[in-house]
Amino acid sequence: MSFYQLLANYYDDIFPLNPGTLAFLSKQFRKSAGTRLLDLACGSGSYTLALSREGFDVTGLDLDRDMIQLAKEKRSRQMGNVSHPEFIQGDMLELSRHFTREFEGIFCIGNSLVHLDSDVKLEQGLAEAAKILKKGGSFIAQVVNYDRILQDQIEELPPISVAGKPIVFRRFYSYDDQKHVILFTGELSIEGEGTFRETVPLLPLTRETFQALLGQSDFTSCRFWGSFAGEAWSLDAPATIVQATCSGTAAR
Q: What long-range pairs does 148-151 form, CB within 8 A, spacing at least 24?
């Protein structure tokens, strides 16, 4: 079993739905976008399902087959034998191939966007999002605050332990200045089974670069926060959260 297949078994324990995050997304999309939403890198589908229960028309997309299967199983448990919200296995670099209809809002949270591990790939992903987003539609993304990671040379984020579960998830960072990537190592320790880890490259995406790439990809009116509690972005904030508006001027 691969590391990420193993992680899928504990995904909802390690990354449970955060009511504050849900409230932020619901508020922003009701205020600025509409009801037809796409959850990019939806993972196990927690936010897709929760926003669907709030009346949004949400579709979840993830590259990982195990996550999509987990999301469908969760949908069956929570909502019965239904086919909505829809969950699709797919690549965020090929959104215009997966979807022919436009969405009114797109969100990508959980530090997922930086798995597009170069400026070129990220610009391509943002351009694909703009192609399927309605003019005036809202794009919301959240990543770790890499300005802080780079400035303070942070090598590990606080470990995540789960009450009542024999698991600990640790996250390590090391910067490869030649390739301009952060090597992220996820380490899952399971009592009685051992410790498992996987290393992947991530794009160390700063706020300045993020805003520039959004501007090059048909997005305007960027607004930044430092957390889903709505605090202003700063170098010390835990996250970089952006909301941008699709200008609808690029060729589709």
A: 148/235, 148/236, 148/237, 148/238, 149/173, 149/182, 149/204, 150/175, 150/204, 150/206, 151/235
